[in-house]
Automatic annotation (TrEMBL):
One of its GO terms (molecular function) is amino acid:sodium symporter activity. InterPro entries: Na/Ala_symport. Belongs to the alanine or glycine:cation symporter (AGCS) (TC 2.A.25) family. The keyword Ribonucleoprotein does not apply. This is Na+/alanine symporter.
Amino acid sequence: MEQFITAANGILWSLPMVFGLLALGLYFTIRMAAPQVRLIKDMVGQLVGGGSSSAGISSFQAFAMALGGRIGVGNIAGVAAAIYLGGPGALFWMWVTAILGAPVALAESSLAQLYKHKVRGQYRGGPAYYILEGLGRHWRWLAMAYAGATVFATVVTGPQIQANAVTAATTAAWGWDPLWVGLGMAALFCLIVFGGMHRLARTVGLVVPFMAAAYIAVGLVVVAVMWQEVPAMFSLIFTSAFAADSVYAGMLGAAISWGVRRAVYSTEIGTGSGAQASAAAHVSHPVKQGLAQAFSAYVDTLFVCTMTGLVILSTNSFNVLGTGEGPPIVEHLPGVEEGPAWVQIGIDAVLPSFGPSFVAVAVFLFSFTTLLSFAFYAETNLAYLIPSKPVQRICIAAARLLLAASMVIGSVQTSAFVWSLADFGVGLYTWVNILALVLLSPVAIRLLKDYDRQRRAGQDPVLDPAAIGVRNAHLWEQIHAAYERTGDVDEAMDHVADTAPDTRAITVVPRREG
């Protein structure tokens, strides 16, 4: 089993995936006129505007839910793994991936909003929905593949690495038994997740900003105390990123590959996961939520992942394996496995007796909010796959219980095995979503142009699907019709949220529009 997963990851995460994601980000950057730079003000503005409805959650709640999915074990253990396998320069390529990936996040989240549906009284959407509605029924197989792969990854493979990281950190800090930690997390997860989407959104919305801010603040304290090491540290990052440092000669490919790979796992850029939270938001134009999700990529990588990397590098709390066989080419922590322990040691070097406990709490919060988001993503895709409402309810409940069981199983597995499982699951649905984004890129670009046009005219953008040649955006057609009657976009959105019947993503044209 382990050999099969390793071989499959070698294919799924090969150079075509790495450079394909970077190329897609560059393409959207050019065609959208660098929205990751020119629309930063709008990105931040979307986090404080808008409200929720009976069918949808607020823009900030959707942002927080997606951020909860993004900020997880990848922000601590993932960064450590990237440095161990790709050298300090991997951190630079994580930054590149976040900057080029922001327009990708904007595109996929805007598309999810555009083609959202109302399922069991709540807005649902994501790649499975926009593949079918945007590309036509002859692409149904691709939509089904995405939905099935996402359910598998969020219910079986992904939860295991999250729970495993928590048990590693709590064992190092307090000596807790991994099995009991896994059981406790599973029990708490079930108490929260069976409360429904709104309770989930409120929980994540409260926890995510606090945990991210606290982690960044502690990281800044460590870097400030180690300020004399900062110039040499940044020099090491940039020189090793291009294999210009003699110690890391020959590691250019590893730095790029592992930097992109771990950035994708951490930010979920190109995977379509964050887009599923975006579809639930209550906004007047799809691009508004796309901008909020693009900003979450910055928060995840440029702030949280960067803090992890800077703490590790500034305190020399890292090892680097190198490209050949044999011992590590850099070994500051002999015998210490890459992961949360590196950050615990780094913080402890500056704030004695504080690092292990703080990182254990941070890893728990980061991982637990990711698990809550996994539950939402699994439910969204099961709602797509299963038309029968009674069967939906049974399968969703079963998926939640299986997700909880995966947490318990992962808590007692080896770190290497659960990382391989997580990469396998993410790789499966990321390939599907990248293909969909390439095919639907004209629609995503038209959406942003429509948003820009209305903003330049001094208007609060409201989408009229027909005006930009988009069909099958059923809810948005109803919202715009209600808006034309009332002249009040908030009233129109509330009306549709309350009165629109449940729909399924099955009424489609036979080929892609535009």
